[in-house]
Amino acid sequence: MISINNLSLSFGGYTLLDNINLHITDKDRIGLVGKNGAGKTTLFKLIMDMQSPSEGKIAKPSDLNIGYLPQQMEHHHSKNVIDETMSVFEAFFKMHDRVDAISEELSLRKDYESNEYSKLIVELNDLNDKIALWGGQPPRTFAESVLMGLGFRENELTRPTNTFSQGWNMRIELAKILLRKPDVLLLDEPTNHLDIESIQWLEDYLQSFSGTILLISHDRKFLDNCTNRTVEIVLGKLYDYKVNYSKFVELRKERIEQQRASYENQQRMIEKTEEFIEKFRYKPTKSNQVQSRIKQLEKIDRIEMDLEDNSTLAVKFPPAPRSGDIAFNVMDASVSYPDKPEKIIFSGANIEIKRGEKVAFVGINGEGKTTMMKVLMGQLEPIEGSAKLGYNVNIGYFAQNQEDVLDNNDTVYDTLEKIAVCDIRMKLRDLLGSFLFKGEDIDKKVAVLSGGERSRLAMARLMLN
Fold first, then answer.
1. The model's pTM
2. CA–CA separation, 270 vs 462, rounded Å?
3. Cβ(70)–Cβ(170) under 8 Å?
4. In angstroms, rounded to a whole number, what is the distance separating the alpha carbons of residues 279 and 290?
5. Per-residue pLDDT tens digits for 224-281
6. Residue 81, class by beta-carbon neighbours within 10 Å (0-12 exposed, 13-18 middle, 19+ buried)?
7. What's the burial of 33, exposed, middle or buried (CB within 10 Å: 0-12/13-18/19+)?
8. How far apart are CA 135 and CA 210, in angstroms?
9. What is the DSSP letter of 134?
10. Do residues 231 and 240 make contact, with C-beta atoms less than 8 angstroms apart?
11. What residue spans define the domains of the chain?
């Protein structure tokens, strides 16, 4: 279906993908894994012809219908949720209109044996076959079921899309892709903005999906439930395992251990052979043996260890000033947003967070988790009750859209330099290195960073603040 042949991609001397090959067949369910910046999203863009390789090619049928959900995308804000989602059926409705037009024309014609009549019959049959592929469910009913499966409530379907966050607009785009019923799904971190119930719904949908799936995710359980083949990108190379993620982790460990053992055994043998050659090279009585060993070394198929990326984050939060015993206290609080004061997000809320506690806000989307965080930050004031920070509490806030505050025109280094003060300017490279930005990475533009890299940079920026 999709064949990637001897493909390489380089940027100014840096090779991101190095002579990789991959064959994707019908009904494959592939998890594409690797560290942030390894080239996973770039490979998707290459498949979608959004980028061109430096060498090699990607072969795919011209009529292949691919649905692609990127990590970041532009959203349309001129319609409400259901109307924007229904726009995906424009081609479907046009096919129906054409079927009606052909049927009416056929009913008026009498030239049953003519070529024109036969062509209309063929076109009508083709259109009916395509319409049948959409299934018998009415488009609006289908759209509503997908949207509600992704977490939208019925009363939210007529809300303008510009009143929703980026995460919710991403769900609309995901719904549109699923409704197109593509042959191939390319999903780049689809669970980033989904709650637990929506992830479960998406898992069930993908398990029943009849086409091919390529999935990028850092959610191990999601990968296990939705894929049966794992492709890893490491330092420009590609490794293909015909198993799900959990089994892949075991097989990769076994493969590397076996490879290392074979490599070490061979190196010991080579070392002993070279010692023998060096020791007896100039002894006439050993010349035949020396020549035999030299030829033996020349014929050896030398084992090469696969490159491993063992880099890990080395982050240590700076010590916080000691606060009072109560870090945050809410009493009988009711909260709404200033632009919609009549819509109460939550009411009668009571919570007390003590110094040193680790607290998780859980619940389905729309229940007020982010709203409570904004109350904690002082960005929202309760319309009833109270919300107070404790004595000497210093807050660092990493919001859902934290990476959106980054300037795409800045380099990684510039992003931190803008806010660094005093002696910390001398330690920026060390700080970036602890977040895995090393060497030429610090000169990359923010615009070319992967989603994970942008999040790491945003976290570094937060710590610097």
1. 0.69
2. 52
3. no
4. 9
5. 999 999 999 988 889 999 999 999 999 988 888 888 898 899 999 999 998 988 888 8
6. buried
7. buried
8. 13
9. T
10. yes
11. 248-299, 326-389, 402-464
